[in-house]
Amino acid sequence: MSRALHKLTAQTAKAAAPGKYSDGGGLWLHKRPDGGAQWVLRVSIHGRRREMGLGAFPDISLKGARESAEKWRALVREGLDPIKERDRQRRDSARKLHLLNDVALDAFESRKAELKGDGKAGRWFTPLELHVLPKLGKVPVGDIDQKDIRDTLSPIWHTKADTARKAMNRLAICLRHAAALGLDVDLQATEKARALLGKQRHKATNIPALPWKDVPDFYQSLDGGSVTELALRLLILTAVRSYPLRHIHESQIEDGIWTIPAEAMKGRVGATTDFRVPLSSEALAVIQEARKFARDGFLFSGVRRGVISDMTMSKFMERRGMDERPHGFRSSFRDWTAEATKTPREVAEMCLGHVSGSKVERAYRRTDFMEQRKVLMARWSSFASSPRDGVVSQFSGAAAR
């Protein structure tokens, strides 16, 4: 290198008094009266003079300052502003430091409004928390690739297929969330991981449902008057999901209509749409009986606090030796409407709170078929709650209520 360019030596830089000393090529050493010192690079870019700090002396040696100065001068020769370029590189580095743990929590937080009970039950986050974050939580999200995902989910890909599928889907949401934050991530990583993992051997099975012709026998067997039995009776009569049924509150019932808040519904169009359920005379009678167990307005309160759990009803049926589960009564109702009535599909689906028809069709159809559903649910209630003459119930003498 030319001595005209490299004017300073390590010894003169160290011994220099307070002042400004040029090393040539725009590199300067600024020494302050308080003993501190720093390197500064002066360049001209697009007609502007720029001063760029290169670090403190002697932490940054003369040799290190020269190497840094040459790197940034090379960018100036390419027409780039070295200060803006350094800021961009720092932002990129900071982005890569975002760990999956942080991104996943932020993604969960932003989606709480879409989830039942603000996701407090933990079902959205649990697949990530149990099966992804223990291995990848401390990895910068920008570094995660399909091999990382494959290695993480391969132990449960076939043995816990549904859980693995949910974990993969949640992870894909996290990657999209990271991209929306401006982080550099591979949005195809989960799809690539699916290709590496292959098709799952485990096949999803539907929740076991009681055949609709057996529903009256089971309903008649729920004669113990316990909270669990009353909850099962109302679940059958209304064909709703377990969550809103377990959280039914006095304030939601008025003039024979049960209005379920939008946040308690799954699969409804629009997060602000409440769902109205017509209550038959039998359903109102069950509600009246359940009021003696109510606590804080909740009809089906738990033993110690809150409301009864989803497992309470499932365990009740399990103790009776049944494979069927509470959620299956929705299927029982739907099969009954298809096989024993001439109910239009859109009315039957509306009874279940399902989305029916195309997006355009739904935009023009504003009715919830309340009058038709009142008639249908009254028929279902009459069928479900009436004993079958001359038939010996398979549930007679059933154990433990």
TrEMBL record:
Q: What are the protein's UniProt keywords?
A: DNA integration, DNA recombination, DNA-binding
Per its record, what are the GO molecular function terms? DNA binding
Record domain Tyr recombinase: where: 205-377
Q: Which domain of life does the protein's organism represent?
A: Bacteria
Which family is this sequence assigned to?
Belongs to the 'phage' integrase family.
Recorded hits in PANTHER family, A to Z, give: PROPHAGE INTEGRASE, PROPHAGE INTEGRASE INTS-RELATED
What is the official name of this protein in its record?
Integrase arm-type DNA-binding domain-containing protein
Write down the species: Defluviimonas salinarum
Classification lineage: Bacteria, Pseudomonadati, Pseudomonadota, Alphaproteobacteria, Rhodobacterales
